[in-house]
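Quick illustration for those who missed Monday's session on complexes.
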Amino acid sequence: MSSKKNISMPETFGLPTVGVETHAHLDFPEFAEDLDQVVARAQAAGVVWFGNVFLSPVAYRLHHTRLAAIPGMFFTLGIHPHEADTLTTEMLADMATLFADDPGLRAFGEIGLDFYWNRSPRDAQVRAFQDQLALARDLDLPVVVHSREAETETLAILRDMDFTDRPLLWHCFGQGRDLAEAVLANGWHISIPGPVTFPKSTALRQAVPHIPLSRMVLETDCPFLTPQPFRGKRNEPAYLCYTAQAVAELRNQSIHEVWSACGATARAFFQLAP
Ligand SMILES: [Zn+2]
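Prediction with zinc ion bound:
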């Protein structure tokens, strides 16, 4: 029998308005029709800050004015590993200018390695990651890292480039306790996405109780990675509550506690006003 009518909708969780969605792609065409409603639903569900991740200077220029008009919006920008082979010296200089000009740009990323899809050749991914890390270090910016099937290589590059104890967020964390402990030992932060709600995410679910909330933030990565109970549908920031709920259950804490603590961690990481 369908339990659809028993789904708790986000606004019914009664979460305090301190939530931070740390990773969204609201400039994607999936949100072109109903962005205002998407934002309103999130706000009704306690999300007050939205981190929009731009994947290129082109995307930034096309969409940042419209998004910046939304209260609580902040940005990150970087060339994703999928497009690593498009990165040029001119683009690096262009991104440096954008960061200098826009205080709403709070972190460099998402950048990293994706050896699952391999949409750019691996050597191009490594080079783009290194070049962007060097720029982020020069500009003294926090970094948002994407790493898929490339954890060892990612850690090695970050170590070689002296990123230990620099502000770094490991986005869309999906692995187990060993990687979580390596990330934490380097002084970095971990972002928990919707798949923590899937019963089969065993390693991730086992890792969650071992990550202090002072180092944990929450993300949707919308329109992707929709948590239960909406798995298979378009993801949106309002669904962050389901991720918080799964984290709370795994830690035997209240969802309010997780929501507030992860919100505070995210505000500190991205230097958002209280
Ligand atoms: Zn993303």
